[in-house]
Amino acid sequence: MTTLTSRPGRRRPARLAPWEERPSPAGQLGKGTIVTLIVLAVLGPLYTIVLTSLSPAATVNRAGGLVLVPDGITLEAYRQIFSDTVVSRAVLVSTGVTLAGTLISTGVSVLGAYSLSRPGSFLHRPLLFSILLMFVFFPGIIPVYLMVSGLGLKDSYWSLILPTAVSAFNVVVLRSFFMNIPGEVLDSARIDGAGEWRILWRIVLPMSKAVTAVVSMFYAVGYWNAWFNAMLYIDDTRRWPLALILRQYVVDSNPLPAATAGVTGDAPPTLAIKMAIVVIAVLPALIIYPFVQRHFTKGVIVGAVKG
């Protein structure tokens, strides 16, 4: 009777997970086809919008709508938009609100998440419960409107920032990431005499660049695209952000002064001006995203491993 024993020093190869195995040629072809279709679905509308905004009036009129084949390029639609202060002022308002709001929201979220990631912190459980409760309950539009009005924030830029200054989702993501930082690192810093502020600034934040960049991107895109709060709280049209201008003109088809004042025979068509406003609204996100996208996988997935 013989006994089968494995040779010393030899280990059986570990079985790969299905998603780790090398795909077959048919699988590679299918994946390539799906990715190509997704890219076309994303870039196709963007190409059409940009081309229509750059097309002269004759090309837009001949196409009867959105332009698919280029036939001449002109910047007249953009000149027409920026000839009046409506859009240019709205761009400045959106830029200021986005920068200030992102800085405030990211700072408050980091501070809240770090305190909630430290067991035994002041009011740890009640505050954590309140944050998690925000996933289920929302106070509603009317109570928030009454609160903003009662605080005297109507027609103020603060009404575009403070009501949405903190996102419970972002706080939970940051907290989960901070909890993954080894406690030994923080304990060694405390032994060396570092306080909580110094630990946060010198150790935690440098180790959390990925998740902080992702959360900042979330806040920035949210502030840049926000129009509902401006419609509720801002009555002065000179303080409207670009997103509300985009909605009023492109969606509701309300005329802008730049589209009606001083119009000459070579003025761009209304559709070209609408598409130019869309391009102006989308352009900042397209410029910033490539610098942040490399952090998305690490920032979101690693930050959501531990709750």
From TrEMBL:
Family annotation (Gene3D superfamilies): MetI-like (1.10.3720.10)
GO BP terms: transmembrane transport
Domain ABC transmembrane type-1: residue ranges: 91-292
GO CC terms: plasma membrane
UniProt keyword annotations, A-Z: Cell membrane, Membrane, Transmembrane, Transmembrane helix, Transport
PROSITE patterns: ABC_TM1
Record localization: Cell membrane
This protein's name: Putative aldouronate transport system permease protein
Organism encoding this protein: Nonomuraea wenchangensis
